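Q: I'm writing up a methods section and want to include an example of the input and output format. Could you take the sequence below and give the corresponding predicted structure tokens, formatted cleanly so I can copy it straight into the document?
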Amino acid sequence: MLSKITNLGRIIGASAIFYYHVGLVTTYRFSEWGEYAVACFIMISGVAYTCFSSVQPDDLPSYHRYLVGRFKAVFPMFVVINVVIFLLSFFYPSALGRPFSFLELVLSSAGLSQYFGFRFLSKVMWFIPFILQAYLLFPFLVGLLKRIPAPWIVLAAFAFSLAATSAVFLYRPQSALEICRNWSVLFRLPETCLGLIIGQTICQQRNLKAGYAALLLFSLVSCVLATAVAPRFGPDAIYVLSLPWRGLLVTLVVVALSSVAMVITRKPALNLIRLLSTASFPFFLLHGIAILFVYHHVGAAKAAWLGYFLFCWAEAIALTLTFRFIEPSMRTQSLRSRTNQTPR
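A: Here is the clean output for your methods example:
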């Protein structure tokens, strides 16, 4: 049941982010809330890790296999999509008004653009190095959760992220918004920890009272930050301090919609849901490519945007199926190569 909810959550979350980016040019109602579905992906990743992984950072071989697996799951498709966007920029100008340079392609494909003062080939790509940092931290945070009560972890996460955010606003005020939003999971540590805590509470049935107390504490602290503390500062600080609260609200809506969809979905649709869940990753990366192009041709016509939405999902599914076909062939070829190199 949990895997079904998380799969549906990825699909709905990716669709909400699509709606947000379309809303930037069309001003559709409530589209601004779609941005906060990013928090849903952070929490789903934590839940999935806790429920379906048993990696420990002190077990180096296991930790190494886990990291390699995560990077293999993300980077091949990420690089391919970067190359596609790079090539398309020579036929239709990028948001920079020109084709991307080879250096921009290399930095974007490596997930390093923002750290060197460049932009990613697509704005949403900041999330890739961000979530990879979360994957690196998950085993260590789970280790802490085994030794420290969950509510204390939530408080420590808020304290650390607030301290880091304050330092950035103090020393880099001009770029503080971008840094605190995109650069590192350390600025979003409360959401990261909450996903792991929810996973422990649901899947491992460990310290249920502490898990529920941590969720309540997260809700209380994030609400106070958004409604009582944030208004005392400027718009950038208001935005950053409101992220945990708004992210929690959107995540609750996504979970509610996923639960309803799970009830009405029949068994034959399970394979399609799993496929769409996997395809949500390329969908997330691909959907922004032609938003300006579509807007310049159709404006805010809802039927046209629905068509583009479905086209992006079809494109993502096709890419997912292509990788599913290619990866076993590559593994087989690699195995044959190693076998042929083995001394007889």
